């Protein structure tokens, strides 16, 4: 970890701690909205499976008869500042540059959900309510203090040495913690290192299969175990992507790393194509978050590009606890 980034994170943590204190002491006022708000967040910079959990939770809410909306800042999208909405009616006319990559990925997975974007997430929740949505799932909401939330779910990986947005002690503000399973430690040992008495459930990430770019067909990853593979990604935790492939017996022969939320200019696409040709790879594999930015590129149409379709395996009882904490019955 670079010393400069570490010290910058310390200043950020101090500012966040001060802001949380002001809201907790009611010096600054939180605003409430007429529908329940479930916040999904973390205390680190960068990814920790928040978006896959949002997708999974929204899917289950639909199964239980709710009409959920995703609330997201829409980081780096055109609507981040102005606000905007993705609905079943306009989804076909929207692209990832408008929404940001993660909201667009969510829209592709649960097109029936409303997705409300913009920095002002109080306003987004009110818009969702007026449109008839009855519950809000807020992606990356743990540090959004100005909105009163009914349930705070925080994902955390004790083995992750990433920069912190808040100190470990902030986890006591969560209602439920999802702790990433560590194969070298049991849950009791991990939990005892946390400064809290919050309900803790373990989760793990697994690759369901590989999907050919531009299609919906999932292929068993075992089919590619003996293939020559080029992998690339533009995410915050690339090693997690590589680990999920290796767990399925896929060991990339080469890997190209791009920055998080990368927008893939043609220079980067040319780099991928050149590397594919130089090592004569059988397949090229990336993440779903990256794939939504690449599926319409003519330059990649003739390449064997696949993306990894991941899912979360969550300890039994988690979703029962979610609905218990919300004090909400199935519809």
Account of the 3D structure:
This protein has 331 residues and is of the alpha/beta class. It has two domains: 3-198, Rossmann fold (3-Layer(aba) Sandwich), CATH 3.40.50; 205-312, 3-Layer(aba) Sandwich (Rossmann fold). It is built from eleven helices and 13 strands. It has helices at residues 3-24, 50-63, 79-82, 96-99, 101-109, 121-130, 187-192, 238-246, 266-279, 288-291, 318-326, and strands spanning 37-41, 68-72, 84-86, 114-117, 135-139, 151-156, 176-180, 200-212, 218-219, 229-233, 254-257, 283-287, 305-314. Helix 2 (50-63) runs parallel beside helix 5 (101-109). It starts with a helix and ends in a 5-residue tail after the last helix. 34% of the residues are buried.
Supply database-style keywords.
331 residues; alpha/beta; Rossmann fold; 2 domains; 13-stranded mixed beta sheet; globular
Layout of helices and strands:
Layout: H1 3-24, E1 37-41, H2 50-63, E2 68-72, H3 79-82, E3 84-86, H4 96-99, H5 101-109, E4 114-117, H6 121-130, E5 135-139, E6 151-156, E7 176-180, H7 187-192, E8 200-212, E9 218-219, E10 229-233, H8 238-246, E11 254-257, H9 266-279, E12 283-287, H10 288-291, E13 305-314, H11 318-326
Parallel strand pairs: 1-5, 1-6, 2-4, 2-5, 6-7, 7-8, 10-11, 10-12, 12-13
Antiparallel strand pairs: 3-4, 8-9, 8-13
Helix pairs in contact: 2-5
User: What's the total helix number?
Assistant: 11
Distance between the termini: 48 Å
Q: Could you describe the largest sheet, including whether it forms a barrel?
A: 13 strands, mixed
- The CATH topology of the largest domain is given as Rossmann fold
Rg for CA atoms: 20 Å
Secondary-structure element pattern, one letter each: HEHEHEHHEHEEEHEEEHEHEHEH
Strand content: 15-25%
CATH architecture of the largest domain: 3-Layer(aba) Sandwich
CATH class of the largest domain: Alpha Beta
């Amino acid at each position: 970890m670079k010393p400069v980034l570490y010290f910058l994170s310390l200043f950020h943590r101090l500012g966040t701690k001060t802001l949380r204190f002001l809201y907790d002491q009611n010096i600054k006022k939180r605003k409430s909205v007429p529908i329940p708000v479930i916040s999904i967040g973390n205390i680190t910079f960068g990814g920790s499976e928040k978006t896959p959990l949002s997708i999974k939770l929204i899917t289950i809410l639909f199964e239980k008869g709710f009409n959920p909306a995703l609330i997201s800042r829409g980081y780096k999208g055109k609507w981040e500042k102005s606000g905007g909405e993705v609905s079943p009616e306009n989804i076909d006319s929207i692209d990832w540059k408008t929404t940001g990559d993660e909201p667009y990925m969510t829209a592709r997975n649960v097109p029936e959900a409303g997705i409300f974007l913009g920095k002002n997430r109080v306003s987004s929740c009110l818009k969702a309510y007026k449109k008839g949505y009855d519950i809000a799932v807020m992606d990356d909401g743990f540090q959004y203090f100005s909105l009163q939330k009914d349930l705070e779910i925080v994902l955390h990986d004790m083995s992750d040495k990433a920069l912190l947005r808040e100190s470990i002690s902030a986890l006591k503000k969560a209602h439920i913690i999802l702790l990433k399973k560590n194969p070298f430690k049991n849950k009791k040992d991990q939990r005892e290192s946390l400064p809290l008495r919050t309900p803790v459930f373990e989760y793990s990430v697994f690759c369901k299969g590989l999907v050919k770019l531009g299609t919906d067909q999932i292929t068993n990853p075992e089919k590619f175990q003996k293939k020559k593979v080029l992998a690339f990604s533009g995410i915050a935790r690339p090693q997690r992507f590589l680990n999920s492939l290796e767990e399925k017996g896929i060991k990339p022969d080469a890997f190209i790393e791009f920055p998080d939320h990368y927008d893939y200019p043609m220079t980067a696409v040319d780099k991928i194509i050149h590397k594919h040709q130089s090592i004569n790879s059988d397949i090229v594999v990336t993440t779903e978050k990256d794939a939504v930015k690449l599926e319409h590129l003519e330059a990649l149409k003739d390449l064997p590009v696949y993306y990894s379709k991941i899912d979360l395996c969550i300890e039994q009882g988690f979703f029962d606890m979610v609905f218990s904490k919300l004090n909400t019955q199935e519809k």
